[in-house]
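Support reply, case 0932

Customer input (verbatim):
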Amino acid sequence: SLSQAVAGGGGLGGAPPPLAGTKLNKVTQLTGFSDPVYAEAYVHVNQYDIVLDVLIVNQTADTLQNCTLELATLGDLKLVEKPQPVVLAPHDFCNIKANVKVASTENGIIFGNIVYDVSGAASDRNVVVLNDIHIDIMDYIVPASCTDTEFRQMWAEFEWENKVSVNTNLTDLHEYLKHLLASTNMKCLTPEKALCGQCGFMAANMYARSIFGEDALANLSIEKPFNKPDAPVTGHIRIRAKSQGMALSLGDKINMTQKRPQKAIGA
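Our regenerated output:
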């Protein structure tokens, strides 16, 4: 799994490619290096299903009998079938694939254990708890367009609203809008000429759809005092959706990106 990801090709002059340009940023470490069984998963998102390619390494001098990858899900995810048990010789490894079906744009978590018996030991089954795998909803959301009339109609109809406060170190209104659009895969419906200029206030409507046909609307309302050029942008984002899962997931995504250091995005 990891070696396959690394073999994705080098950059210019044989230099390694940046992390974001390789499959490495899709590899999740599931156990610690000091655990008797080491595991990591390459998460391959293919629209309506997720394939987990899990590398399992026996780091002990014992033969592991009935080594089983046990997985469970939270959210609108469903494990297609349970992976079959394997036998791992001392310091041996194997790859196990697991398929998970995705039914909606909702924050999903895959969790579980690796259980095994040690050959010749009389003790109970051994258990190694895996780190959670969090599914990124941005893999399922794409920018979309609609008219002002359609936006207002959906805004009035959608019953779920999530209000997120702006928490940023950015000091420019336009830069924050760019950052938000890049973080959420949404499209700004407000014309550029309505956003240009510096008046200390900005309001913009945004729209996106999921591959499952779910609509997501957002209204950005931010401000910045003229007399404090170094003050950060303040305000809020109102998200509306037909389903609670979509509204909450998009809000969680915005909050998560706001916790990380934010840099101005070049034009």
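We compared this against your earlier run and they match. Two observations from our side: The two ends are 36 Å apart (CA to CA). The chain has two domains: 2-135, 141-259. Please reopen the case if you see a mismatch on your end.
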